[in-house]
């Protein structure tokens, strides 16, 4: 099994190209099921998750093959679902990657039926899908749960409806959008998530002929159309990847241009980075982060839906403030079990106490490299952030978690002078 070895203490200097956003790409891939024409997605990040989603999609497409074409080493993927061969997504497929559940809405919208496994829990919490199912029911789907599967039917097609979410869910908002673009009549989604990935999905669907307004705000209106057509669309830059490297540069010190990063997607992070003593500069082709050697200032954060501080950067932020000159309080409000990186950071000498959904991080002068274990995608990269700043060698085990979400991580860091290798 691959491991990553980091010799810490080197400043990061140079340019890091930001890849396409995993979390957006996965939903755009699901959107490909909505049309019989070709959807061409550019700027696709080649990751375990996006590749896996292609394998899943191929099982749903034309049984004679040719539904998905994404040559290795390229960032352009072509999807053509001229026929849907199957409306079944097995437990094995959905268990491996929760985002697989997003095929339910498109299959239902296009074929009037689908049988998709419930995802089950994951390392960061229970993560139910009740809001997804309520949205589909509001659109007129008949839903039954049998043996761990969602059996959904809409024999007379989906009908536009008002969907009011009791709290913000990125996945449920996206699922409601994917299902309602082909529904008859108008759908209004209230208390919609405002994440940039929602706008990306709306723009891609619009390029395919959908009629959507309000994406990026709390109310999204969708007027159903009878068919969608093919399109070419480029996936937005990954704000979580960009934010991770911003935190890595701040933690290790140095000066890095995050090429392609959009400052507007990172405003809450950039603000706390400045509070901690890092310099941020918005440039024509990206965002620059620099920090002089020395300890950062402590900063308190609370994770929130966009435009608040993203939960997907919480672990990396904690890795950064482990060496701050004072205590930082980190409150996680999105997922109930997202502090699994804490014991691993403590193995590196961090001083962290958890009380409920809060972690109190008392800065220590220095972290020391240690063998550590990756537990989920974002937790594992927080260990890389900490390892880059630490003295000595950090060995990160179970790096398959990293491969789910970070494209060419060692290559990008090494190009900036980091001592990182896969063994
Ligand atoms: C997406 C992202 C994930 C990110 C999260 C929050 C993808 C593939 N994943 O996950 O990286 O951390 O947004 O920004 O895009 N919930 C329910 N019922 C539901 C749906 C959600 O109770 O039906 C809860 C979740 O358990 C969680 C909260 O709502 O506590 C927010 O989750 P949600 O925004 O839906 O996250 P995901 O879409 O799963």
Task: Describe the protein in words.
The mean pLDDT is 95. The longest helix is centred in the middle third of the chain and has 14 residues, at 239-252. The protein has two domains: 4-19 and 237-422, UDP-n-acetylglucosamine1-carboxyvinyl-transferase, Chain, CATH 3.65.10; 22-234, UDP-n-acetylglucosamine1-carboxyvinyl-transferase, Chain (Alpha-beta prism), CATH 3.65.10. It is of the alpha/beta class and 423 residues long. Helix 5 (130-138) runs parallel beside helix 6 (170-180). The strands form six sheets. It has a four-stranded mixed beta sheet. It has a four-stranded mixed beta sheet with strand order 2-15-17-16. The chain has a four-stranded mixed beta sheet with strand order 4-5-3-14. It is 31% helix and 25% strand. The termini are close together.
CATH topology descriptor of the largest domain: UDP-n-acetylglucosamine1-carboxyvinyl-transferase, Chain
For CATH, the homologous superfamily of the largest domain is named as: Enolpyruvate transferase domain
Described by the principal axes of the CA atoms, the overall outline is elongated
Overall residue-averaged pLDDT value = 95
Tell me the name of the CATH class of the largest domain: Alpha Beta
């Amino acid at each position: 099994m691959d491991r990553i070895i980091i010799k810490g203490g080197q400043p990061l200097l140079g340019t890091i190209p930001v890849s396409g956003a995993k979390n957006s790409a996965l939903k755009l891939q699901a959107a490909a099921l909505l049309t019989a024409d070709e959807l061409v997605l550019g700027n696709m990040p080649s990751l375990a998750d996006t590749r896996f989603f292609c394998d899943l999609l191929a099982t749903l497409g034309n049984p004679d093959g040719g539904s998905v074409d994404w040559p290795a080493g390229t960032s352009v993927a072509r999807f053509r679902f001229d026929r849907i061969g199957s409306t079944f997504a097995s437990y094995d497929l959905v268990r491996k990657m929760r985002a697989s559940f997003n095929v339910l809405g498109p299959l239902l919208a296009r074929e009037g039926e689908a049988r998709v496994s419930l995802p089950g829990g994951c390392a960061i919490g229970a993560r139910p899908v009740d809001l997804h199912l309520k949205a589909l029911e509001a659109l007129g789907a008949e839903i039954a749960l049998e043996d761990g599967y969602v059996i959904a039917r809409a024999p007379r097609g989906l009908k536009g409806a008002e969907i009011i979410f009791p709290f913000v869910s990125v996945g449920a908002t996206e699922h409601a959008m994917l299902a309602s673009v082909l529904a008859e009549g108008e759908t209004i989604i209230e208390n919609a998530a405002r994440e940039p990935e929602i706008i990306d999905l709306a723009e891609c669907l619009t390029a395919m002929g959908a009629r959507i307004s309000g994406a990026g705000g709390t109310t999204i209106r969708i007027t159903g159309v009878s068919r969608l057509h093919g399109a070419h669309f480029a996936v937005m830059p990954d704000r979580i990847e960009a934010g991770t490297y911003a935190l890595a540069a701040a933690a290790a010190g140095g000066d890095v241009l995050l090429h392609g990063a959009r400052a507007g997607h990172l405003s809450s992070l950039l603000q706390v980075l400045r509070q901690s003593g890092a310099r941020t500069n918005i440039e024509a082709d990206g965002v620059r982060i620099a920090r002089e050697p020395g300890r950062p200032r402590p900063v308190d954060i609370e994770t929130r839906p966009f435009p608040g501080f993203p939960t997907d950067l919480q672990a990396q932020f904690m890795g950064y403030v482990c060496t701050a000159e004072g205590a930082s309080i980190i409150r996680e409000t999105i997922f109930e079990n997202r502090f699994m990186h804490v014991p691993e950071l403590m193995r590196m000498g961090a001083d962290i106490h958890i009380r409920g959904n809060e972690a109190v991080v008392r800065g220590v002068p220095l972290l020391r490299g240690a063998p550590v274990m990756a537990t989920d995608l974002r937790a594992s990269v927080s260990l890389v952030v900490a390892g880059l700043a630490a003295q000595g060698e950090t060995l990160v085990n179970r790096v398959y978690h990293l491969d789910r979400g970070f494209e060419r991580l060692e290559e990008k860091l090494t190009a900036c002078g980091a001592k990182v290798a896969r063994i």
